[in-house]
Amino acid sequence: MVFGSLGKFISGLTRTREALTGAIQQVLGTGSVDEAAIEELEAGLLAADLGPSLTEEVIESVRRRSRREALDAAGLRRAVAEALGAALGADPAPPPARDRRPWVVFVVGVNGGGKTTTVGKLAARERQLGRRVLVVAADTFRAAAVDQLERWTERAGASLLRQADGADPAAVVFDALRAARSRDVDTVLVDTAGRLHTKTNLMAELGKMARVAAREAEGAPHEVLLVLDATTGQNGLNQAREFTRALAVSGIVLTKLDGTAKGGVALGIRRELGVAVRYVGVGEGVDDLLEFDPDAFVTALVEGG
């Protein structure tokens, strides 16, 4: 990880872990891990928003293990962690090979999910790696969003390209990529307007922006990161389904993980949609955007304390 540590994972997942370990303790309070107790555990996993298919896999694994051995608290936690690890794989999803310059990243999502803040944190990460960064204010409909982005860009030490309110977002992208070439920029981060995944005209607008980008930079956008608010739980999973149908989403950024008991949705998204969770947000600081590591995440979720 460039920023963060297992300690931040553990801290950020406190509420989710408390809900899950509470369910485990409730199971153990029954005196044995029988079928009724396993059903209690299933309810706890669903409450943590692991998603139905992943929950079913974990429950079946625990059920098989309980038939082979008596499970105490530590054993039950290990059984859950091992089942999650087996379903997800322990290795982080590798980032795309950066074989283009400038490297163009679209950041998309619904309003209020933490998209603009995420762009600022990504800019800071890129600057930490010594790259020249141009942040593009393609949300031309909300002046407040541009002002917020300007503050984050200054904080990160990146450059900002903005145009007049109401400008065509595709035209903004066009100008930005021309500017990126002239300024010898390494990374272009495009902050798009928040949009409901059910609004077909707004989703089509993203498609137009992508086509313009592709004409100006070969293969662009090279990444499309979908920002989801972890506190929305399964609704976030539904949003992800719709965005992945409309766009070639390459990765998920799950924000506000520190404010929810539904953090298991990170695992559900990766398992059910096959889209890598690239980053998780665990706070408001510039270094509170962590690379998603499934093994560290599962450890923090089930065994961290």
Which spans of ≥5 residues are poorly predicted at pLDDT below 50? none
Radius of gyration from the CA trace? 21 Å
Approximately what portion of the residues adopt beta-strand conformation? Answer: 5-15%
Average pLDDT works out at 84
For the sheet with most strands, the description reads: 8 strands, mixed
* Class by SSE composition: alpha/beta
Strand tally, please? 8
Order of neighbouring strands in the sheet with most strands: 3-2-4-1-5-6-7-8
Shape: elongated
Roughly how many Å apart are the termini? 21 Å
- What is the overall number of helices? 12
How would you summarize the topology of this molecule?
Blueprint: H1 6-12, H2 14-28, H3 35-47, H4 52-68, H5 73-88, E1 103-109, H6 115-128, E2 133-137, H7 143-156, E3 159-161, H8 169-182, E4 187-191, H9 200-216, E5 223-229, H10 234-246, E6 251-255, H11 265-273, E7 277-281, E8 289-291, H12 294-303
Parallel strand pairs: 1-4, 1-5, 2-3, 2-4, 5-6, 6-7
Antiparallel strand pairs: 7-8
